[in-house]
């Protein structure tokens, strides 16, 4: 008689950060349950764990109302394709990772199949569109939350939540080698590294890098010896090269994860878009300013709905403006340059940021020890009865 096939989990990631989370989750799942089969949608990191993506993950990496609208037809086709694949495979559970726009619609389509749906990374509906949490209660069997204040919010709507800790703590962002980075790129002793992180989406690159580049030009006129470094996230290298083509000096583009962490260690300051990247930079202890800007129509809609005081996760966790935020009309080259110049003096402003970073990181450990990915894997296996 043929052996029973191994249990199958279906994972769906929609962008570079989710791909990393998915890969770590798969590795942890297989530590607890060797032989577990995985299928779904992911990028290069999940491919390293043996996942053959149903279609290229980059097709889901869209953000902003006006960016999504032209792609609605292709997104609908990919949704139908994903639902058909899940229906055919009948996995033990569907695990959607971040990307709530696609993930929650997929959950609605899959729920009638009787397949448990687990969403990894709580949607930030506590920040805006809080009414959506009631809809989510009918679509999700469990949420794996990264932030300690999230479980009570979702549990009030009847959604089981497990706080698993934040995977930034297992990223290695605080274990880079500054000397190795400086030697690898021939940096002179007097040159100071400015870390520039505009995001992993092409729309973010197009909107933010010209602003960031002009801020660096203004800053370099006042503070000589600066060298920008841009870690690449996702398939955006060509877009970064095009946007940074006129920078003087030209940026160092970093592709490898270990080299990115070396760049963190070498950096004097960071010019960062709001998001998870600010947590990585905070873990590395790099003082930073945050800048972000979206399409004006998107911004006008979001502004009416927003329920929190800060855009940066670091500031949200600290409940204080640890990092200066320059958003929308304030995301201007002159203001960004002035904020960076203050931090480059390495005075009380930079010291206050580092103290704030330490307080924030202490909140993010996985309960009960172990890594956040291990905590997430245990929660998935417990929810699906595969533990």
From TrEMBL:
Any GO molecular function: lipid-A-disaccharide synthase activity
Pathway(s) annotated for this protein in UniProt: Bacterial outer membrane biogenesis; LPS lipid A biosynthesis
InterPro entries: Glyco_trans_19
Keyword Lipid metabolism in record: yes
Keywords noted in UniProt: Glycosyltransferase, Lipid A biosynthesis, Lipid biosynthesis, Lipid metabolism, Transferase
Coiled-coil stretches noted in the UniProt entry, renumbered to this chain: none
Claim: Phosphoprotein is one of the keywords in the record: no
Protein EC: 2.4.1.182
Reactions catalysed: a lipid X + a UDP-2-N,3-O-bis[(3R)-3-hydroxyacyl]-alpha-D-glucosamine = a lipid A disaccharide + UDP + H(+)
Protein family membership: Belongs to the LpxB family.
Function in brief: Condensation of UDP-2,3-diacylglucosamine and 2,3-diacylglucosamine-1-phosphate to form lipid A disaccharide, a precursor of lipid A, a phosphorylated glycolipid that anchors the lipopolysaccharide to the outer membrane of the cell.
Name this protein carries in UniProt: Lipid-A-disaccharide synthase
């Amino acid at each position: 008689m043929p052996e029973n096939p191994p249990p199958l989990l279906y994972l769906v990631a929609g962008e570079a950060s989710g791909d990393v989370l998915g890969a770590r989750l798969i590795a942890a799942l297989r530590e607890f349950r060797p032989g577990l089969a995985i299928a779904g949608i992911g990028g290069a990191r999940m491919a390293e764990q043996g996942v053959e993506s149903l279609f290229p993950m980059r097709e889901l990496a869209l953000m902003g109302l006006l960016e999504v609208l032209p792609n609605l037809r292709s997104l609908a086709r990919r949704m139908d394709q994903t639902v058909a694949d899940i229906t055919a495979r009948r996995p033990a559970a569907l695990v959607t990772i971040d990307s709530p726009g696609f993930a929650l619609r997929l959950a609605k389509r899959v729920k009638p199949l009787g397949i448990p749906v687990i969403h990894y990374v709580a949607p930030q509906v506590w920040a805006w569109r809080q009414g959506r949490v009631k809809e989510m209660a009918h679509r999700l069997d469990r949420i794996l939350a990264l932030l300690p204040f999230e479980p009570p919010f979702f549990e009030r709507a009847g959604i089981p939540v497990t706080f698993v800790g934040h995977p930034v703590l297992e990223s290695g962002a605080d274990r880079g080698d500054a000397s190795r980075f400086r030697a690898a790129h021939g940096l002179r002793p007097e040159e100071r590294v400015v870390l520039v992180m505009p995001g992993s989406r092409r729309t973010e690159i197009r909107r933010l890098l010209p602003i960031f580049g002009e801020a660096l030009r203004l800053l370099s006129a006042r503070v000589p010896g600066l060298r920008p470094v841009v870690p690449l996230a996702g398939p955006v290298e060509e877009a970064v090269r095009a946007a940074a083509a006129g920078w003087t000096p030209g940026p160092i583009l970093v592709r490898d994860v270990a080299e990115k962490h070396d760049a963190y260690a070498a950096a004097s300051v960071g010019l960062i878009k709001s998001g998870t990247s600010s947590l990585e930079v905070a873990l590395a202890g790099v003082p930073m300013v945050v800048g972000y800007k979206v399409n004006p129509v998107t911004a006008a809609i979001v502004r009416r709905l927003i329920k929190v005081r800060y855009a940066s996760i670091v500031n949200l966790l600290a409940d204080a403006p640890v990092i200066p935020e320059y958003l929308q009309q304030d995301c201007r080259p002159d203001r960004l340059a002035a904020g960076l110049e203050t931090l480059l003096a390495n005075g009380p402003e930079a010291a206050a940021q580092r103290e704030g970073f330490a307080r924030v990181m202490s909140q993010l450990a996985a309960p009960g020890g172990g890594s956040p990915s291990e905590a997430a894997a245990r929660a998935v296996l417990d929810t699906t009865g595969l533990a």
